[in-house]
Write a structure and sequence with these properties.
Rossmann fold, 12 strands, 321 residues, six-stranded parallel beta sheet, binds nicotinamide-adenine-dinucleotide, L-2-Hydroxyisocaproate Dehydrogenase, Chain A, domain 2
Length: 321
Amino acid sequence: MKNTDLKKVALVGTGFVGMSFAYALLNSGDCDQLVLIDINKEKAHGEAMDLNHGLSFAKRNMLIYDGDYTDCHDADIVVIAAGVNQKEGEDRISLLHRNFKVFKTIIEPVIESGFNGIFLVATNPVDIMTKITLELSGFDSSRVIGSGTTLDTARLRYLMGDYFGIDPRNVHAYVIGEHGDSEIIPWSQAYVTTKSVYDIVEYSKGKFSFNELNNISKNVTRAAQEIIKAKGATYYGIGMSLVRIVRAIFGDEKSALTVSVMMNGQYGVDDVYVGMPAIIGRKGIEDIIVLDLTEDEKNSFINSCNFLKETTKEIKCIKHD
Ligand code: NAD
């Protein structure tokens, strides 16, 4: 019988992203138990050992161990960071097909374990992999969440903080849409402290410019490629984004985070997972925040959703493989 006071996370995929999340979680102390699962059992075992050796220095005690899918039965959250990478010359659709097959080998045994909590997906392309998780699990969409544009939003806030000379935590701006090339920054909704970015630029007497905001947009979208070129992969930022979402769930925080959520008619869009600010609490997605977008922003957002929908259709054809 599970002690319901204990907060348990099961992590599937102990690669760069998974372990950056696990390490950040050990340091944040946001859960009591963490089980590491990977197709490479030896890797998961070594990672659990390594993390356990940090416990003496952690701010609280935790149970950390390597396990298998049966260990998900009493987990509150299953975080998925497992996946295969693009082979040289491989197109996006065939990568999707392979990751679809990987997810079948993960979601089915997780469900068979009796897991009845919340899925949190990081594997790319995250919006589509989250939709696949929804379909394979049969869960309500409130309990299937993707990391969405949380990382992109954090990148935006960092760059804006740097440009305007302010703590990124006092920047209120969002990246919405696909976690990828078609993502959008609705500048009409961007604030630094209590001031609209448009007003700040307008009244800055040339100190700040709309041109530079455009450069920030481009740098947000290009950031992943630049990091991958420099060091092979990105993982610290996404690891911390995942911890932030986990904390919002366990703390029943009702925090607004730009996770990947299922659209249900907002802006006339439905049946697609996409990054939008949503209220996160103990039950998962509790609400989706509809932004007051300009016509242009709305059209770009709808285009991003349409792109995701079209790509997801390619996967549906192998649904019954
Ligand atoms: P990685 O190759 O380091 O790790 C992947 C792990 O998945 C490996 O340990 C591998 O053994 C495991 N794995 C593969 N198939 C499995 C299966 N069938 N069952 C269980 N485990 C399996 O990759 P990474 O750098 O950690 O990236 C992981 C994913 O996260 C990628 O899809 C990457 O694109 C994505 N990512 C997402 C974001 C985001 O913002 N959502 C940011 C960065 C990376």
